[in-house]
Design goal:
Structural class: alpha+beta
Strand content: 25-35%
Number of domains: 3
């Protein structure tokens, strides 16, 4: 039962309000007439027990939309905040983000504020548009429920979208409500974290402008090379590949990732040629079952290899032995190698011959380090010029050296002589052997024979020797007052923030549709003088279908206690709320056994 709270003064009796009879429609059929309370009936102030003087219309006031306008402003502010933050940190290192909370979390919170505020606006607009729709003409009562469901979330909005009978301006709000589900993922998708290589510090790598490193020798006129250079020579000969010798060159690279622009340095270079076609075969005869055998084999420089048991013979000089290679003025050694691949009874097919020149040169490099691993590109070298009385000078041609480098390079006289003498001693020798045994004059000759006899590119060992000696030449130049380094850049992979703005098109579009929907809804409410009831349930209770339909007194479609206790013809939401606070109801069975709010 409904209980009216007692009041200090009794409420006046309300005069019956005008009404009109219209048919109530269900889907597909019409039922008996039921009287509806008109929304826009002009009520005389004398029709009520409590007369009310005429005043400004109480419907569609802009002030009633204050909450929605503020909500849209908050939504717009959230969108603007997202764009501002993304703009501020776009293409900046992630480390520039100073706050304890993650960057994505801040953007997610701002997007959530934007989305929640926008959905509040669309919900109010959909709710208000149902009153605008019902105010024009009678409609199926179920539409009231469908509009209400659409205003409450994506499920009801989807139902409205797929119900053509409900297509109305509110459809725009339903679309916004459904598509707004993707706002969060789209906003997050706009943010990426690419790795970019950035310069962090200066790097250096040794280079040599002048080489003057020597050690005391046996006699005053002849000096020896330092032990570090000897170690480098052995490292080049005994290392498996020339690449192993390159890693010995140190660089000041703080991050392990460095790049160096092209730079030049004094170096030791080598050129080799296969001169097997120049070998002369002497005293040859057919010896079964070995075939043709020769007593000895010779080169034009009179280097001889015995055809019975001698494996290799090598000799050095400062001039080209065969004229195949140029004789550079800065030649340290010209080496001739004559060898057999058979330990006994060599045949002409077993014989090979090579000539190599080792000389000071200018070498141009372009180096880089990746995780500490070196990668160098070698450009064509420039041999040294003719011998001078004091130094062996090499002058770089125009454009060969970098702008910060000098064009004149030199090797001290004593250093030149010491290196040449050492190479001549190291690379001269021979080996002989029999089945299962061999005798070498030095370990160096052993290494050279193994490489030349087994590798189709056997002279790579000489290249490894030169490369390894160059590494020591660049790190131990002996020029205490002319130390040279090549500048470079230490780099590091840094995580950056990058914004893909195209993904923000959806949130911005929804923002525009939201304000458009709000503006049209407000305009229609003001123009049509529709009461601003929005999603109020009280409006349906207070102004439900009347039960006073002629001839159908027992058909109850309204709550009399509600409709009889509103003092205004067209109440505002606030007025209905004030009245509802003074009323108490419960869901209980009526005389017919049905449940009703009483």
């Amino acid at each position: 039962m409904y209980h009216q709270p007692k009041s200090p003064r009794s409420e006046p009796m309300l005069a019956p309000s005008p009404s009109s009879a219209v048919p109530l429609y269900h889907y597909g059929k019409a039922t008996d007439h039921i009287t509806y309370a008109p929304l826009y009936a002009d009520q005389s102030p004398h029709a009520y027990g409590n007369p009310r003087p005429p005043s400004t219309p109480r419907r569609g006031r802009l002030l009633d939309w204050g909450t929605e306008i503020i909500a849209w402003i908050i939504s717009f502010a959230g969108t603007a905040a997202v764009i501002i933050v993304l703009r501020m940190y776009n293409d900046r290192p992630l480390s520039d983000w100073p706050h304890g909370i993650a960057f994505n979390a801040v953007i997610s919170i701002l997007a959530l504020v934007y989305k929640a505020s926008l959905l509040a606006v669309t919900a109010s607009c959909i709710s208000q548009l149902k009153w605008t729709r019902f105010a024009k003409r009678e409609r199926n009562l179920i539409e009231l429920d469908l509009f209400d469901a659409a205003s409450r979330g994506a499920r009801g909005s989807l139902r409205m979208i797929f119900t053509p009978a409900l297509w109305h301006l509110a459809l725009l709000g339903a679309v916004v409500t459904v598509v707004a589900v993707a706002v969060g993922p789209f906003t997050q998708q706009a943010i990426t974290y690419p790795l970019r290589t950035v310069d962090v510090s200066r790097a250096t790598i040794p280079r040599t402008q002048t080489y003057q490193n020597i050690a005391p020798g046996g006699i005053q006129a002849l000096k020896d090379i330092p032990l570090t250079m000897k170690a480098a020579a052995y490292n080049g000969l005994f290392a498996a590949t020339s690449a192993q010798t390159r890693s010995t060159l140190p660089a000041q690279c703080s991050t392990g990732n460095c790049t160096f622009p092209p730079y030049s340095s004094l170096a030791i270079c080598t050129k080799c040629a296969n001169i097997t076609q120049m070998v002369a075969r002497n005293d040859c005869s057919v010896v079964p079952p070995f075939g043709t055998q020769c007593t000895n084999y010779t080169l034009p420089n009179d280097l001889v290899l015995n055809g019975h048991g001698e494996l290799i013979n090598s000799s050095t000089s400062t001039l080209s032995n065969t004229k195949i290679l140029d004789s550079y003025g800065s030649n340290l050694a010209n080496i001739s190698f004559l060898l057999s691949q058979s330990a006994i009874a060599s045949t002409p097919d077993d014989i090979r011959a090579y000539e190599c020149s080792i000389y000071f040169c200018l070498q141009k490099y372009q180096s880089s380090f990746n995780n500490g691993d070196s990668d160098r590109q070698y450009m064509p070298d420039i041999p040294g010029s003719a011998y001078s009385a004091v130094d062996h000078n090499i002058t770089a041609p125009p454009g060969f050296v970098a702008a910060n480098e000098q064009a004149n390079f030199s090797v001290g006289e004593y250093s030149f002589g010491a290196v040449g003498h050492y190479l001549g001693t190291l690379l001269t020798g021979y080996a002989s052997g029999d089945i299962g045994e061999a005798s070498y004059t030095s370990d160096a000759i052993n290494a050279i024979y193994n490489s030349l006899s087994s590798d189709s590119n056997g002279t790579s060992i000489i290249q490894a020797l030169a490369t390894s000696m160059t590494a020591d030449l660049r790190t131990n130049s002996g020029a205490q007052f002319n130390i040279a380094v090549a500048p470079g850049t230490a780099t590091q992979d840094v995580t950056y923030i990058h914004v893909r703005w195209i993904w923000l098109a959806l949130p911005l579009t929804l923002q525009a549709l939201g304000v458009l929907l709000l503006g049209i809804t407000i305009t229609l409410s003001l123009r049509n003088r529709t009461p601003v009831w929005k999603s109020s349930l009280l409006a349906a209770l207070f102004l439900g279908p009347s039960s006073n339909a002629p001839g159908r007194p027992g058909l109850q479609h309204s709550v009399p206690a509600f409709s009889n206790n509103i003092p205004f013809a067209v109440p505002t939401q606030k007025e209905m709320e004030e009245r509802a606070r003074t009323m108490r109801v419960r869901l209980s069975p009526d005389e017919s056994g049905g449940l009703r709010l009483q």
